[in-house]
Design a protein that fits this description.
Shape: globular
Strand content: 15-25%
Number of helices: 7
Radius of gyration: 17 Å
Largest sheet: 5 strands, mixed
CATH topology: Glutaredoxin
Helix content: 25-40%
CATH superfamily: Glutaredoxin
CATH architecture: 3-Layer(aba) Sandwich
Number of strands: 9
Strand order of the largest sheet: 5-4-3-8-9
């Protein structure tokens, strides 16, 4: 089912069932319902340099959320075998599910802007430095290229297909309570427009929302 707007706090979280990355099993919302709140991160494919950095950041969030009784799940938009190859060399304790077709993004209403001439122009003019690791803010398109070169990341055939299907999909974070109700959300670029590309809310913002969700 395609949701036409992002799922908002107070609304039921759409169900999902996705292949896990770490093992030959299925990960679903029902795994958590009635047992624990869930911090759900809907990411892009591993081709995205901002997403690769945010997955590391999510691992840090997970370390702080577990003591609050909240589980984390990151959905990476690539085939399970492509994700397994990546995480074999860059292991994480974060629970991961694969969704190359972005079905969960669609269900949760995470926007995918139309790449109009206006948006393409903005990507060449709006400057970003979301992780602070660039020497200065760069145009969005250039910032991504610089980070790719810095990482030495080489696309797999799966990555190339993911780029063609996914760009310019945005990302979303959702805190879901034990009853399956969304209690907090963050949609990329919702507040800052395209200047918000690659940015996560602060750890304190996430923890404050998590404490309220777990209460």
């Amino acid at each position: 089912m395609m949701q036409t707007h992002p799922v908002s706090p107070g609304e039921p979280a759409p169900p999902f069932a996705l292949p896990a990355v770490a093992a030959a099993e299925t990960v679903s919302l029902d795994d958590y319902r009635g047992r624990t709140p869930l911090f759900l991160a809907l990411m892009l494919g591993l081709w995205c340099p901002f997403c690769r950095r945010q997955l590391v950041q999510l691992g840090g969030f997970d370390d702080k959320l577990k003591p609050l009784g909240i589980e984390s799940l990151a959905v990476v938009a690539t085939a399970p075998e492509n994700a397994r190859l990546y995480f074999k060399f860059r292991p994480t304790r974060l629970r991961l599910a694969a969704d190359p077709g972005l079905t969960t993004h669609r269900a949760y209403g995470v926007p995918k802007p139309e790449p109009t001439p206006e948006i393409l122009e903005l990507m060449e003019t709006i400057r970003i430095n979301p992780t602070g690791e660039l020497p200065e803010p760069l145009p969005i398109s250039q910032a991504g290229k610089v980070l790719q070169e810095r990482d030495g990341y080489v696309y797999t055939p799966s990555d190339q297909g993911d780029v063609e299907r996914q760009w310019p999909q945005l990302k979303g974070l959702f805190l879901i309570d034990r009853g399956g109700i969304v209690r907090w959300s963050h949609i990329e670029c919702e507040e800052e427009g395209l200047a918000g590309i690659g940015k996560f809310p602060s750890e304190q913002t996430v923890l404050n929302a998590a404490r309220a969700c777990a209460a």
